[in-house]
Structure formats: C-alpha cells, structure tokens
Write a structure and sequence with these properties.
The chain is mainly α. The protein has three helices and two strands, in the order αααββ. Helix 1 (8-26) runs antiparallel to helix 2.
Length: 98
C-alpha cells in the first residue's frame, strides 16, 4: 500500500496476523478476536495523509530556501532566513487565482 503509515514489514505482519486470527477462530480460540483487528490496523486502516518535505537535507542554500518556501506556502506562514548569519524575512509570492 503506497500511503500506508507503517513500513512494508508491518503490513506483511498485519496480513500474517489476519491469517493466524482466522485460523484461531476456526479452532474456536478467542485469540483470533484480538489478532484480526490488530492485523487490520497494520495492513489497512491507518493511512498517512501527510507529505514529507526534506528541507534540512539540502546542501545548497538556494535549494534549502526553495524547500522552505514550499513549506511556508503549505502552512500559510512567513519564512525567516537565517542562512546569512542574520535574520531576513523572505518574500513569498502568492498563487494566482483566476
């Protein structure tokens, strides 16, 4: 699942928990009632709707500033640039609406 909150290993674990939960329910064991919902959480139900923007990994000042502008626009906040040793407010362009 592309947007799953958990890594692939946890998704596979979720499917295994669902499978073993069904097996335990067939055997009339109460553990299946715990394993199936836990497996569903790991494999389907928790989906991240966040987007990751890696601004701190940029080596170049201009690339980091562009990522910072992207974050500031997404959060609808001002951007303060400290890369030159003193604080300078960065002018952000508003998106044009037609």
């Amino acid at each position: 699942m592309k947007n799953n909150f958990f890594p692939l290993q946890f998704v596979i674990l979720g499917y295994l928990l669902i499978g073993f939960g069904i097996y335990f329910l067939i055997r009339s064991d109460w553990v299946g009632f715990i394993m199936i919902p836990a497996g569903m959480v790991f494999s389907f139900l928790i989906i991240s709707k966040t987007e990751r923007i890696e601004a701190g990994l940029e080596k170049e000042r201009d690339a980091a500033l562009e990522k910072g502008k992207e974050i500031a626009k997404a959060l609808d906040k001002k951007l303060l640039d400290y890369t030159s040793g003193k604080s300078v407010w960065v002018e952000l362009q508003k998106e044009k609406t037609n």
